[in-house]
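::Amino acid chain::
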Amino acid sequence: MKRILFVILSAMLLASCVLPEATQQPAPVTPVEPKKKEETPIEPSEKVPQPPRIQSISWNSIVQPLVEEMVKVYGVEAGKVLLVDSVKNNTNGSLRTLKATDAIIDAVSNKQVFQVVPKSQVHIAQQALGLSSEDSLGLRSKSIGLARYLNADYVLYSSVSSNNGQRDLEMQLMLVKTGEILWSGRGNINER
């Protein structure tokens, strides 16, 4: 009973509340024309800076002799699956390591000693394992883990290092099962 009485009184109270109507006039708007800026002529600078020279490296000429040497090493079985890991840049400079990796893959494929894991399959495996395809600080253990995931027999690990201004490409052929380094080679990087 008290609830019903409370609801009725509340309804009467709310019904008696009247909102005053807004009789406010809108604020007057006066249009303002934008000021025109004085155009100052831009004077050309005296000398245009030259962009940095892009260094061209003949990766094929560096990689070919190394691959020739690698396929002749004792203990390498023909027809086995090889993962060519991307070239790591361990220098302070900028290098086109993707071109170097492509040159290595082409040189190894042309020898027809190994079955090279396709780049698309490597990329999918890297995503599945949470590895970056641009990982420039790659470790040999990551390379071997990736090769195991792809059921490869060998992994070719490559890195570019700098010593006293001289840059070298170092390649290592490793057996995936044991991590043993079967072959190691080094090539001098000459720029054109």
About this structure: The mean pLDDT is 81. Residues 39 and 147 are 64 Å apart (CA to CA). The longest strand covers residues 154-163. The helical segments are 2-16, 59-71, 97-111, 119-129, 140-149.
